[in-house]
Structures are given as C-alpha cells and as structure tokens.
Design a protein that fits this description.
This protein has 132 residues and is mostly beta strands. Helix content is 4%, strand content 45%. Strands 1, 5, 6, 7 and 9 form a 5-stranded antiparallel beta sheet that branches. Strands 2, 3, 4 and 8 form a 4-stranded antiparallel beta sheet that branches.
C-alpha cells in the first residue's frame, strides 16, 4: 500500500470440524494481527475471538464460511452431508473493508481447533488495496 488506504477483503470456503464439542474458529489476519471490528473496539470487547467465526455443534458437516462487514461468519446448514464445491459463477460474496497504514500486508485466514482437526475446501480469498 503506497499510502494510507483500505483493504477490501472477501473470503468464501466450506469448512468442518471432526471432533464433537471442540471449539473451532477461523479469523482473518493481516500478518500476525487479527482483524477486529470498530464497534467491539469502542465497546472495550476486543478479545482474540472478536471478528472470528465458530462452527459450534455442526461438526462433521461442511458449512459455508464467508466474510461479513465485521469479519468472518458461518452459515450453519445442518441438512448438507456432502459438499462438491461452489459453482464458478453466481455465488454472492460479502466484503469487509479494513483501514491500513502505508505498508505491505499479508492477508490470511487462520483456523484453530481445541481438539481434533479442521477441514477446509473450495477456498477463495480476494483482496483489493485502495489508496486514498
């Protein structure tokens, strides 16, 4: 980023955990820093899980993981037992915007499980840098 600006980030994937009652989360990072929402920051509620998504009790079944205005969100789809992938055209993807200072940034989505493992497939990450 040659000047102060913002990053427009969109992410879409399918994910699942393999262990019942495990805490499984995902979050967007700039380098080693997890993104956080402005509303949570002002309310003093910023925690390591702020802006992250959690699978909860839907282990063993793929669920959509996507960006929202405040970070990542998961849409629980309890009736889906198999997932063959997203179509190449026509899937609606939300976007978040993060203000950044001049610099070079590595954008990633990181996963954490308290037990077992996390499976993620059909990942798509789009990043656009906009100077102002």
């Amino acid at each position: 980023m040659p000047t102060n600006g913002k990053l427009r980030i969109s992410y879409l994937a399918a994910w699942k955990g393999d262990t019942e009652n495990a805490s499984i989360t995902a979050a967007i990072f700039l380098g080693s820093d997890q993104l956080m929402s402005a509303s949570a920051f002002h309310a003093g509620l910023v925690t390591p899980s702020e802006g992250s998504a959690s699978i909860g009790i839907f282990h063993g079944k793929y669920s959509p993981l996507r960006t929202s205005a405040d970070g990542l969100t998961v849409q629980h789809v309890s009736v889906v037992t198999t997932f063959s992938g997203y179509p190449t055209t026509g899937v609606i993807v939300s976007q978040l915007e993060a203000f950044v200072a001049t610099g070079t940034y590595t954008v990633s989505v990181q996963f954490k499980a308290s037990a077992g493992s996390v499976s993620v497939k059909d990942r798509r990450l789009w990043v656009e840098a906009v100077a102002y």
